[in-house]
Structure prediction request, 223 residues.
Amino acid sequence: MIKLVLLDVDGTLTDPGRLISLRAVEAIRKVQKDGITVSLASGNVIPVMYGLKTFIGVKAPVFAENGGAMFQNDEIFPFFSMEGPKKLFDRLEKEGKLKGILSNRWRLTSMAYVPSGEYAGEIAETAENEDLVTVDSGFSWHLLNRGQDKGFALDKLKEIYSLDYGEILVMGDSYNDAPMFRKDVVKVVPANAEEGLKKVADHITKEGNGDGVAEILLNLRSL
Ligand code: CA
Prediction:
């Protein structure tokens, strides 16, 4: 039986224009009333996750920066250091290989960027050599510490709520969601998901984005 649902935000709760799905919001509120724990994990920053949690009414802790920081009970819990990502980001920016994005001013454990020209591969390689990782969320690239991913967020929730993987359902649309796809976890992707992610999913919703979220949340019992 599913007890906890962990959802990606961009491309999963939101449509290609980044508008949040009202059907998904209503479905989240409904399943929480039925006793299901719902959490969100995004590459976005704590202030955004704070807003989503507050205004949607998500009760569980929520995760920013691909699992790098958690927000709960008016407290921010950063699990990784900013030092490595910031140092490499500053160097690559000076070399003209990438550009930062607006939300970097609120980041605590990672940096987000758009690679210049053909530098995406070289940036990934340089990061690897410095024990960092890069990931493309489909909206921007992220420079992260090793082990900093949404799977880390999933394991935190598993620990906080003392659950088995089999009691957790995860849903996301892009490659930075893949670390949540642990063995025994129920893996769901919306119809708009990356093809590679669809191949490893247990369920592909008929509808895309937030309509897909509503579809799966309102049918949890039949899974
Ligand atoms: Ca996404």
